[in-house]
Specification:
The chain contains no helices and 35 strands. It has 379 residues and is mostly beta strands. Its main location: membrane.
């Protein structure tokens, strides 16, 4: 799949008047771009595999939750598993049935995922509490907080359910965009505010009532048609305290202050994957896998890196020791924070990295499309 925007080749789903487009359907090319060869480098970071585990394959947009010293993961067979972050031991496992379409969200007590029958399934440990069939497809992992489960549908409607009994509490529909994207969106929280990506905007929503509190724009897309103006926020989202940073599909990266509900900065840049953020930098790769690091407070460019062109990078992870990316050949790349130079590389398996790397304490979890899990320790 070429990373250059060319033409619309497929309409995946139509919901009401909104067409839902697959990210890959926006691109076409007669010849796949060749990935950049692996460069030689001098290792400057010690990385070791603390433990390995295995789940079924990952053929859906997996989101790994790290909470309460456990990683909660899902697989294509529809199995949700909680693993101890320090040892990899299975804490609990539950089958939600019918494979998995979106997941997994968890607050450490409840976990939520959506299966291929578009059922929202909520469990507490190995016990399934309830399941509910949704009327609109979901591919964004549910968000669980405050004994509530929040769902973002493909048409960017938000729904809230009671985590204990599955009662629907509210739903929020916004004016529809002509097109929405068949790619996981943005769903999170800051203090007592639910954060939702709706089109190119990040919205602050009252989680108790489902009312809009504020919204801030990441991108103001300009194009001659609806495809060129498609700019949904895509996950994962980066965070540093009250600052949240996100990518608007193929148009911009920006950061927002959730206390005030206003944009701090935006930068015009293409790309389809999410971002990672800490107090110093926000990092993302563009559609050609050219990586940029911007200062989180200002949006000023700190460095750019082009040694991974066309390697189909995952969303990144910014840590205090390095910036991490996985790629489609299963390599995990570690870049220096100051210049973006390669300082370490780890090979997992050839199936490719299936999700954004996730950190809990001093452990980083990597998941591959074949379902292998690698817990890395950066010394």
């Amino acid at each position: 799949m070429s990373r250059r925007l060319l033409s619309l080749t497929r309409v995946a789903v139509v919901i009401g008047t909104a067409a839902v487009l697959g990210a890959c359907s926006l691109f076409s090319s007669s010849k796949e771009a060749k990935p950049a060869p692996l460069e030689t480098f001098t290792p400057a970071l010690n990385v070791r595999v603390g433990w390995e585990a295995r789940v079924d394959s990952v053929k859906f947009p997996l989101s790994i939750t790290a909470v309460n010293n456990q990683f909660v993961v899902g697989d294509s067979d529809g199995v949700v598993t909680a693993l101890a972050a320090d040892t990899g031991n299975v804490l609990w496992r539950v089958e939600i049935g019918k494979g998995m379409n979106a997941g997994v969200g968890s607050d450490g007590r409840f976990a939520a995922a959506v299966n291929r029958d578009n059922e929202l399934v909520v469990n507490e440990g190995s016990k399934i509490l309830w399941r509910k069939t949704l009327t609109v497809p979901v591919i964004t992992a549910p968000f669980v907080a405050g004994e509530r489960v929040f769902v973002l549908t493909l048409d960017r409607m938000v729904q809230a359910y009671d985590a204990l009994d599955g009662r629907k509490l509210w739903e929020l529909r916004r004016p529809g965009e002509p097109l929405t994207l068949q790619q996981p969106g943005v769903l999170g929280a800051y203090q007592n505010t639910l954060l939702v990506g709706q089109g190119p905007r990040l919205a602050g929503v009252d989680p108790l009532r489902g009312t809009l509190q504020w919204e801030a724009t990441v991108s103001n897309p300009r194009g001659t048609n609806e495809v060129e103006r498609l700019a949904d926020l895509v996950g994962p989202m980066g965070r540093d305290n009250a600052t949240f940073c996100a990518r608007a599909f193929q148009s911009a990266v920006g950061c927002i202050n959730a206390d005030r509900g206003n944009a701090l900065w935006t930068r015009t840049v293409g790309g389809t994957r999410g971002v990672s953020t800490d107090a110093v930098m926000t990092v993302a790769a563009d559609g050609s896998d050219r990586i940029s690091a911007w200062g989180t407070p200002t949006g000023d460019v700190i460095w750019t890196s082009d040694q991974f062109l066309n390697r189909k990078l995952s969303a990144p992870l910014v840590t205090d020791k390095a910036v991490l990316f996985g790629d489609s050949e299963g390599y995990v790349h570690f870049l220096s924070r100051d210049k973006g130079q390669t300082i370490q590389r780890l090979s997992t398996d050839s199936s490719g990295v299936a999700a954004a790397p996730v950190r809990l304490g001093n452990v980083v979890l990597i998941a591959t499309r074949n379902g292998k899990l690698f817990a890395l320790r950066l010394d």
